[in-house]
């Protein structure tokens, strides 16, 4: 779907996957006016297909667009575009289990010009790719690196938007995590470098017995849809679920004295991933016993059962395609 200043959204079309031809002076290549989303379509037990909370993705896409001085795509058009692609690619939705068809809606400036200003032409596209189960061999805890050198986002910056530049800026820290033998980077706040924000592409939860806590939305972390869903699912299951503030010192101390029983990360791609060990320039510890914990696994099961149609959709989160 195209957007042109003065004309609005126009010329929606469904075409076979193919390369785009890009002008060397395309404004996105220079100024990175680009946003994206990620959501999954799951096969349901009756053979139908459904997406999980696409309205929430559509709303976050609009919020990202506002931050990046881009036009807001109406939520109905966002969902209609995803639905049309899934209908077309129906055969690519895996038959069952945790496998899914991953959808990647995105928008970028399609105007040509070298002046630094918001573009007047944009292109919104959705592509799809089958995604296997994230842990085909069983859930495996990840090791994380606390990044004290680099920051992902600052207040007033673009951290709460799903824009390409945030990910470009994170690559060097991800590489640093890997050089320390860690799977993922954990971002800290930009001012004191001690408040836990989020992981590379997932939000974090801290489990204190039957109370679970996730870092509050400070404006510099992404408001994850999985994070939001888990606040509700956890309460449904009888846990106390809250937003709060946790420092690296809290994490290390509460783990050592046994009050912090589990830590996990959550996001569309992996659903829920246990955190097994933590490293920084100054410290190195095993989280709990290093194994996936019972609360983590219970929440993971509950969310996946909902998404794959094996549990009642009591919150109206599933969007069936018929
Ligand atoms: N934080 C970041 C930086 C992410 O890229 C993602 C993935 N979209 C998340 C958190 C988790 O968000 P969601 O649950 O909506 O996938």
Automatic annotation (TrEMBL):
<keyword id="KW-0808">Transferase</keyword>
<dbReference type="GO" id="GO:0052656">
    <property type="term" value="F:L-isoleucine-2-oxoglutarate transaminase activity"/>
</dbReference>
<dbReference type="GO" id="GO:0009098">
    <property type="term" value="P:L-leucine biosynthetic process"/>
</dbReference>
<dbReference type="GO" id="GO:0009099">
    <property type="term" value="P:L-valine biosynthetic process"/>
</dbReference>
<keyword id="KW-0663">Pyridoxal phosphate</keyword>
<dbReference type="GO" id="GO:0052654">
    <property type="term" value="F:L-leucine-2-oxoglutarate transaminase activity"/>
</dbReference>
<dbReference type="GO" id="GO:0052655">
    <property type="term" value="F:L-valine-2-oxoglutarate transaminase activity"/>
</dbReference>
<keyword id="KW-0100">Branched-chain amino acid biosynthesis</keyword>
<dbReference type="InterPro" id="IPR033939">
    <property type="entry name" value="BCAT_family"/>
</dbReference>
<protein>
    <recommendedName>
        <fullName>Branched-chain-amino-acid aminotransferase</fullName>
        <ecNumber>2.6.1.42</ecNumber>
    </recommendedName>
</protein>
<comment type="pathway">
    <text>Amino-acid biosynthesis; L-isoleucine biosynthesis; L-isoleucine from 2-oxobutanoate: step 4/4.</text>
</comment>
<dbReference type="InterPro" id="IPR036038">
    <property type="entry name" value="Aminotransferase-like"/>
</dbReference>
<keyword id="KW-0032">Aminotransferase</keyword>
<dbReference type="Pfam" id="PF01063">
    <property type="entry name" value="Aminotran_4"/>
</dbReference>
<feature type="modified residue" description="N6-(pyridoxal phosphate)lysine">
    <location>
        <position position="162"/>
    </location>
</feature>
<dbReference type="InterPro" id="IPR043132">
    <property type="entry name" value="BCAT-like_C"/>
</dbReference>
<dbReference type="InterPro" id="IPR001544">
    <property type="entry name" value="Aminotrans_IV"/>
</dbReference>
<keyword id="KW-0028">Amino-acid biosynthesis</keyword>
<comment type="similarity">
    <text>Belongs to the class-IV pyridoxal-phosphate-dependent aminotransferase family.</text>
</comment>
<dbReference type="InterPro" id="IPR018300">
    <property type="entry name" value="Aminotrans_IV_CS"/>
</dbReference>
<dbReference type="GO" id="GO:0009097">
    <property type="term" value="P:isoleucine biosynthetic process"/>
</dbReference>
<dbReference type="InterPro" id="IPR005786">
    <property type="entry name" value="B_amino_transII"/>
</dbReference>
<comment type="pathway">
    <text>Amino-acid biosynthesis; L-valine biosynthesis; L-valine from pyruvate: step 4/4.</text>
</comment>
<dbReference type="InterPro" id="IPR043131">
    <property type="entry name" value="BCAT-like_N"/>
</dbReference>
